[in-house]
UniProtKB/TrEMBL annotation:
Entry cofactors: Mg(2+)
EC main group: transferase
Pathway per the UniProt entry: Cofactor biosynthesis; (R)-pantothenate biosynthesis; (R)-pantoate from 3-methyl-2-oxobutanoate: step 1/2
UniProt keyword Cytoplasm, yes or no: yes
Region named Disordered: 1-31
Cofactor: how and how many bound: Binds 1 Mg(2+) ion per subunit.
InterPro entries, alphabetized: Pantoate_hydroxy_MeTrfase, Pyrv/PenolPyrv_kinase-like_dom, Pyrv_kinase-like_dom_sf
Any GO BP annotation: pantothenate biosynthetic process
GO molecular function: 3-methyl-2-oxobutanoate hydroxymethyltransferase activity; magnesium ion binding; methyltransferase activity
Pfam families, per the entry: Pantoate_transf (PF02548)
Record protein name field: 3-methyl-2-oxobutanoate hydroxymethyltransferase
Length: 294
């Protein structure tokens, strides 16, 4: 969804790109910070928004400038930055560090951070305390929490503390061992459970419901059942928003890709070619040249 397609007014403190001789706007309006009510406007008007993961200042700045509406500081940093096999090992302190980097570099996007495994399951109080840290120290605007209807009271407690919560249903990576690995959720009779989970979490105060690896039909049923916007990853085209891990989207990660991933670039090859060219120049004595020397 481009800024031209967004419901007006879209963003706080919008300003014109340029002004004519009379001082009136001569170009499109520039949206300010994306807020949760802007995502709700997208749902209400039948438009769409984009979300990408970000874990560092450079990716965050590029995506922010490109007009990505939501940046997710995902616990997927565990297996996309830190080299772990799953999302489970990442800590709250590590999430705060990544969140602070992304938040400082973005000026328009809504920044959402995952509550990592072990930081919210014990009690609603633990979830509130962890969420407060992500907002105070990580500087994010909202948190994301995995889990179904059993976490409705936890969502309610965090929202009561003044912290926006994005719910995450369907395949929940933090529960991969309980779910038997990376498997599509919500097929057949299990579809209603996904719908019930989403409804319970939305009624508890979640401002958005993210669905991962669920059939498009199930995702469509959720989109119809909840008032709040939905976001899909491997959930078909019927959700309000879509999200991808940026290294998957941009072709930085090698190996087999999930079915729901579309690669929009081949950064792995580009970066590899650049590294080889640099190494060849160094070994051949052509770098640094006179133009690179004081």
């Amino acid at each position: 969804m481009t800024s031209a397609e967004l419901p007006a007014p879209y963003g706080d403190g919008v300003a014109p790109n340029s002004a004519g001789p009379s001082g009136t706007s001569s170009g499109p309006r520039i949206p300010g910070r994306i807020r949760i009510h802007h995502l709700q406007q997208a749902k209400d008007t039948g438009t769409h928004f984009a979300m990408l993961t970000a874990y560092d200042q450079y990716a965050a700045a590029v995506f922010d400038e490109a007009g990505i509406e939501v940046l997710l500081v995902g616990d997927s940093a565990a297996n996309n930055v830190l080299g772990h096999a799953t999302t489970l090992p990442i800590t709250l302190d590590e999430m705060i560090l990544f969140s602070r980097s992304v938040s400082r570099a973005s000026h328009r996007a809504l920044v959402v951070a995952d509550l990592p495994f072990g930081s919210y399951e014990v009690s609603p109080q633990q979830a509130v305390e962890s969420s407060v840290r992500l907002l105070k120290e990580g500087l994010v605007h909202a948190v994301k929490m995995e889990g179904g209807a059993d976490y409705a009271d936890t969502v309610r407690a965090v929202v009561r503390a003044g912290i926006p919560v994005m719910a995450h249903v369907g395949f929940t990576p933090q529960s991969e061992h309980a779910l038997g690995g990376y498997r599509v959720q919500g097929r057949g009779e299990a579809s209603q459970r996904i719908v019930d989970d989403a409804v319970a979490l939305a009624e508890a105060g979640a401002f958005c419901v993210l669905m991962e690896m669920v059939p498009a039909e199930t995702a469509g049923a959720v989109e119809a059942a909840v008032r709040v916007p939905t976001i899909g990853i491997g959930a078909g085209p019927g959700t309000t928003g879509q999200v991808l891990v940026w290294q998957d989207m941009a072709g930085l990660r090698g190996g087999r890709q999930a079915r729901f991933v579309k690669q929009y670039a081949d950064l792995r090859t580009t970066l590899s070619d650049a590294a080889r060219a640099y190494a060849d120049d160094v070994r051949g004595g052509t770098f640094p040249g006179p133009e690179h020397t004081f």
